Amino acid sequence: MSFTVRNDSDGSEFTVNTGENILDAALRQGHIFPYSCRDGLCATCRADLVHGRIEYGDYQQTALSDAEIGRGKVLLCQARPLENIVIKAHEIAVPANIDIRILPCRVTRLKSLAHDVMEVHLTLPQERTLSYLAGQYIDILLRDGRRRSFSLAAPPRDGALQLHIRRVPDGRFTSHVFERMKERDLLRLQGPLGTFFLRADSDRPVLLMAGGTGFAPIKSILEQAFAEGITRPMHLFWGVRSRRDLYFDELAQDWAQSNPGFQYTPVLSEPTREDQWQGKTGWVHDAVVQRYPNLEAYQVYASGPPPMIDAGKLVFAAHGLPDDQLFFDSFEFASEARNSA
């Protein structure tokens, strides 16, 4: 059995199989709505239910409150129709060649970037390609049926796929990466996934906020923008705990030197005495609004752990950022540990 979903925003329709969530069905049929975690945690895929009955699935109250449900809000990654329904959601146009695929890949390089960050290079078979937009992510498909999501840290033009993998306490897969993974190991991936990429239909100045390895997709976005000669003013704020966590600080400094219109501000939340830090300290979202107290004319791209994203949403809205000018990629590290328990 299947049900029909009609999107009131543009009149488009697609079908959802029994037990399938709306987002998976939409992606399967080429309809791309904003989404990130797909676990009911980040609220990126929140939309309006105009008519019909659904099952709400599993989600966190921070992503969908009872009051929001009362106002007809749903999370497309969790909602399952119980009949034909009507929603209102913004569909994103992406190039026709961006297809979600399952592909084999081989580990071709492992490089330690920091005490808890590993750079992993993956190469596809010669006859296979993966078309993606800078900022998107892939899922590594594990043998037990579970999956782990990682952003692509290099733009499409670079060939090999690059991941920045942070070691998560009690994380089964990340422990494997640091302790047992070897070059030439074979893996399977699915992608590209996510809607975290630079919107080309705007000329607004761009503020980018990264937390920890949230630097990875922003690195991809920036390197693609530099290669394309995009001239929009851009300012990267990278928040980490201490100086040793700025694993690509020199690269970001080089960007600022060689790309007019680009600025870089690293922010340490817990600098050590050995750091001898003279730069910005505290929370990275506070550094953004201290530098830009009026955000009405800006676009903000934020990538990193959920507490940083949640704090940024509130602070940026209070400083005038329009709701539709915030784009974020929430790194749900907790799900890695939870799934491996």
Short description:
The chain is α/β, with parallel strands linked by helices.
What does this structure look like?
The protein has helices at 22-28, 66-70, 172-179, 215-228, 249-258, 284-291, 306-318, 333-340, and strands at 2-7, 13-17, 46-51, 54-55, 73-75, 80-81, 85-88, 101-114, 117-123, 137-141, 147-151, 161-166, 186-193, 206-211, 234-240, 262-268, 280-281, 299-304, 326-330. It is of the alpha/beta class and 341 residues long. It folds into three domains: 2-88, Ubiquitin-like (UB roll), CATH 3.10.20; 101-195, Elongation Factor Tu (Ef-tu), domain 3, CATH 2.40.30; 206-336, Nucleotide-binding domain of ferredoxin-NADP reductase (FNR) module (Rossmann fold, 3-Layer(aba) Sandwich), CATH 3.40.50.80. A six-stranded antiparallel β-sheet has the order 11-10-13-8-9-12, covered by helices on one side. It has a six-stranded parallel β-sheet with strand order 17-16-15-14-18-19, with helices on both faces. It has a five-stranded mixed β-sheet with strand order 2-1-7-3-5. Helix 6 runs parallel beside helix 7 (306-318). It is globular, with a radius of gyration of 20 Å. Residues 334-341 have low confidence and may be disordered.
Number of helical segments with 4 or more residues: 8
Span between N and C termini? 35 Å
Strand content: 25-35%
Q: What is the tally of beta strands?
A: 19
Strand order of the largest sheet: 11-10-13-8-9-12
In the residues, how many domains can be counted? 3
